[in-house]
């Protein structure tokens, strides 16, 4: 019987990164398919904003309900990505604390696939939840532009892959220190949310807030989603939003792959 040397095994694994990524993706999606209730439960926060904050915004804006929802719903969709993928690193952190992550590290898989497969898994819940929110808002005057919605969902998916990869990176760096993971996550997520203009317009905000929001990539994604869901596909904001999402995905996957390759 021929024994496969470690270096040969490593070479064989590296020759199939797409296969390994696919296997990790399927593994990560199975719990979601077995328990789809988790998708509904994670929608509680966006639905609270849509159901409680939305009417307040409609009352203060003086605009028709449909126009206000056309402005507000895209921000809620980005919020789903921000809160959903921003916390996914806690799942990996739990696996590290229970020892199951160590077993995946010694599996005959390329380590990069362990990160990329996890990040790609975020696409499914993002798309499903976004479609649910749009369908809920539709009877209340929200106008659906099919092509713009389709492109908008693709943009959210790319954006979510980047945020998910960064969340996994944070988990790999903090390891078993849950307090540090959540401390960093919460410290970053709420300023980014407020300075993205997804909840309130920043036109009358102080100058320093407008300056920070101008370089906040989440703000670019929000503006792109508003243009896309309004059917304004040629708006320059769409290009800036795609640039921000692609850059975030590239950076997230790069630092995430490096982090998991160095993990032990």
Low-confidence stretches: 1-13
Cα-atom radius of gyration? 20 Å
Strand content: under 5%
Q: Largest sheet, described in full? A: none
- SSE order: HHHHHHHHHHHHHH
> What's the tally of helices?
14
User: Distance between termini?
Assistant: 31 Å
Overall spatial form: globular
* Proportion of residues in helical segments: over 70%
In terms of quaternary structure, the protein is single chain
Given helix and strand content, the structural type is mainly alpha
Q: What integer is the average pLDDT?
A: 83
Q: How many β-strand runs? A: 0
Can you describe this structure?
The protein is mainly alpha-helical and 264 residues long. Helices cover 79% and strands 0% of the residues. It has helices at 6-14, 17-34, 37-41, 44-61, 65-86, 89-98, 100-105, 111-121, 123-137, 146-174, 178-194, 207-214, 217-229, 236-262. 39% of the residues are buried. The model is unreliable at 1-13 (pLDDT under 50).
Put the structure in a nutshell.
The chain has 14 helices and no strands.
Walk me through the topology.
Blueprint: H1 6-14, H2 17-34, H3 37-41, H4 44-61, H5 65-86, H6 89-98, H7 100-105, H8 111-121, H9 123-137, H10 146-174, H11 178-194, H12 207-214, H13 217-229, H14 236-262
What attributes characterize this protein structure?
globular, mainly alpha, 79% helix
């Amino acid at each position: 019987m021929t024994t496969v040397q470690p270096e040969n095994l490593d070479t064989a694994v590296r020759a199939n990164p797409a296969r390994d990524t696919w296997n990790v993706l399927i593994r990560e999606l199975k719990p979601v398919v077995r328990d789809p209730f988790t998708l509904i439960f994670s929608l509680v926060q966006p639905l609270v904003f849509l159901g409680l904050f939305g009417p307040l915004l409609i009352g203060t804006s003086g605009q028709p309900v449909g126009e206000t929802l056309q402005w507000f719903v895209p921000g809620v969709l980005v919020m789903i990505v921000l809160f959903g993928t921003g916390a996914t690193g806690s799942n990996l952190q739990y696996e590290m604390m229970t020892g199951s992550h160590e077993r995946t590290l010694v599996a005959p898989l390329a380590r990069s696939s362990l990160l990329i497969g996890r990040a790609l898994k975020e696409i499914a819940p993002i798309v499903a939840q976004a479609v649910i929110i749009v369908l809920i808002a539709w009877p209340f005057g929200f106008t659906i532009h099919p092509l713009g919605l389709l492109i908008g969902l693709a943009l959210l998916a790319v954006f979510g892959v980047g945020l998910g990869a960064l969340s996994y990176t944070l988990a790999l760096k903090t390891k078993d220190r849950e307090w540090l993971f959540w401390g960093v996550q919460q410290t970053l997520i709420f300023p980014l949310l407020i300075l993205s203009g997804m909840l309130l317009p920043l036109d009358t905000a102080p100058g320093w807030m407008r300056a920070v929001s101008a370089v906040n990539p989440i703000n670019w994604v929000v503006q792109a989603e508003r243009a896309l869901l309004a059917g304004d596909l040629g708006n320059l904001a769409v290009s800036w939003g795609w640039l921000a999402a692609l850059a975030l995905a590239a950076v997230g996957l790069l630092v995430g792959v490096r982090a998991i390759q160095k993990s032990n």
